[in-house]
């Protein structure tokens, strides 16, 4: 469960960083610096999505494992 929470927290933090960098890129006047900041913002956003997907996958695996443990009992009981 901690692994799932970690990925979701990282996704939120990376999404915030992405938004902050994108905001700074919009205020930038130098073209090269603006492009670099926009590329960095897009990269952080993609990392944010990847962490969210990993958290979801870890949560699904944990749920399947718990269901298997509950249903995997002895049938003779």
Provide an overview of this structure:
It is a single chain. By secondary structure, this protein is mostly helical. Helix 1 (2-27) runs antiparallel to helix 2 (31-71). The radius of gyration is 20 Å and the shape is rod-shaped. The longest helix is centred in the middle third of the chain and has 41 residues, at 31-71. It is built from two helices and no strands. 87% of the residues lie in helices and 0% in strands.
* Structural class category: mainly alpha
Number of strands: 0
Low-confidence stretches: none
- One letter per element, helices H and strands E, the order comes to HH
Radius of gyration: 20 Å
**Mean model confidence by pLDDT:** 82
Beta-strand content bin: under 5%
Total count of helical runs of at least 4 residues: 2
Q: Largest sheet, described in full?
A: none
Measured as a percent range, the helix fraction is over 70%
First-residue to last-residue Cα separation: 30 Å
Principal-axis shape: rod-shaped
């Amino acid at each position: 469960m901690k692994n799932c929470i970690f990925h979701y927290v990282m996704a939120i933090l990376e999404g915030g960083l992405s938004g902050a960098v994108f905001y700074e890129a919009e205020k930038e006047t130098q073209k090269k610096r603006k492009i670099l900041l926009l590329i960095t913002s897009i990269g952080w956003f993609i990392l944010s999505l990847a962490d969210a997907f990993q958290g979801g996958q870890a949560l699904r695996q944990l749920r399947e494992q718990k269901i298997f443990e509950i249903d995997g009992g002895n049938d003779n009981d």
